[in-house]
Specification:
This protein is α/β, with parallel strands linked by helices. It has helices at 91-101, 114-124, 148-155, 164-175, 195-203, 209-215, 223-230, 250-257, 275-278, 280-291, and strands at residues 3-5, 11-17, 40-43, 65-68, 106-111, 129-135, 237-242, 263-268. 31% of the residues lie in helices and 15% in strands. The protein has an 8-stranded mixed β-sheet, sandwiched between helices. Helix 2 (114-124) links the parallel strand 5 (106-111) and strand 6.
């Protein structure tokens, strides 16, 4: 398992999937090769163990994926300073990984809450990014909030599902501030609520409560400054939303796309919060074409 050190001395781990030669076979591991062979650095959401990303539905057959374990998750060490879990402070970890890989620029892919970190990295290090892919992105770094009614309106599209009554009741309670049964609303995060989705939900659950608590602490996002910096961001950006994603609804992702000068918005039909699980072929085709 490869590791490197963050500026504060915390040992961080990452996982490498594929080699990006188009056929998924093992190949030269030199990350300093041409742009096509260079890896895509992937940031998970949560903060949760990055294992839930897998190889992003087979994207590793097109580009080598370097998947970061955020500090205090997966194989990365728990830091001495708990305040270093804050989103803006994690920017230094991503920059340390870029330096460790020996790359002047990286293509960066981030999922869910990890998109907030990617946007803060882009705001601070715009010249270090070649392409930026935000998958079912969180939008707090941009100051975009999602109302409970917006989530419920989207959830009602699943009204014909057999699990809908119980899941919607739990969602109403959570968005209304009277409930906290997050397990019950799990079906809303997937395009298909089957055995694979149920197993994946368990794997994607954050395990480090301290990391979660500090990630969004006061000062973590600075939306005004982040939006101002991204207004001049020159790299191409892909924002991919799932049609049924109550966590990152297409409407909020569409609004987020307006923060970038060169943004492409894709709404994947039938997908929830993990579009590479709901339709791997469609997801990989979209993202690989953008990154190529």
């Amino acid at each position: 398992m490869p590791t490197f050190f963050a500026p504060d001395g915390t040992r961080l781990a990452y996982h490498v999937h594929g080699n990006g030669n188009g056929n998924g076979n093992s190949g030269n591991s030199d990350d300093r090769a041409d742009d096509h062979a260079a890896p895509v650095v992937c940031i998970p959401g949560g903060p949760a163990d990055s294992r839930y990303l897998g190889d992003l539905g087979g994207l590793s057959a097109h580009r080598r994926l370097v998947v970061l374990d955020l500090r205090g998750t997966g194989r990365s060490a728990i830091p001495d300073d708990a305040s270093s879990y804050r989103c803006d402070r994690l920017v230094a970890d991503v920059e340390a990984l870029r330096s460790h890989l020996g790359l002047s620029r990286i293509d960066l892919l981030a999922h869910s809450a990890g998109a907030n970190l990617a946007m803060r990295y882009a705001a601070r290090h715009p010249k270090r990014i070649g392409r930026l892919a935000l998958i079912a992105p969180g939008t707090r770094a941009l100051g975009i909030t999602i109302s409970g009614e917006a989530r419920r309106e989207l959830a009602r599209l699943r009204g014909a599902e057999p699990w809908f009554p119980a899941a919607f009741a739990a969602l109403e309670a959570i968005t209304g501030g009277t409930g906290s049964d997050w397990e019950a609303i799990g079906p809303f995060f997937y395009g298909r609520w089957d055995a694979a989705a149920q197993q994946h939900l368990t794997a994607s659950r954050p395990e480090n409560d301290e990391a979660v608590a500090h990630f969004a602490a006061e000062g973590a996002f600075a939306p005004d400054a982040t939006r101002a910096a991204l207004a001049g961001f020159g790299a191409p950006v892909l924002l991919l939303a799932g049609e049924f994603d109550v966590n990152s609804p297409p409407r909020s992702v569409t609004e987020a796309a307006g923060s970038f000068p060169d943004a492409a918005l894709v709404v994947q039909p039938g997908a929830g919060h993990y579009p590479w699980l709901d339709d791997a072929d469609r997801f990989v085709a979209t993202v690989a074409a953008f990154l190529k």
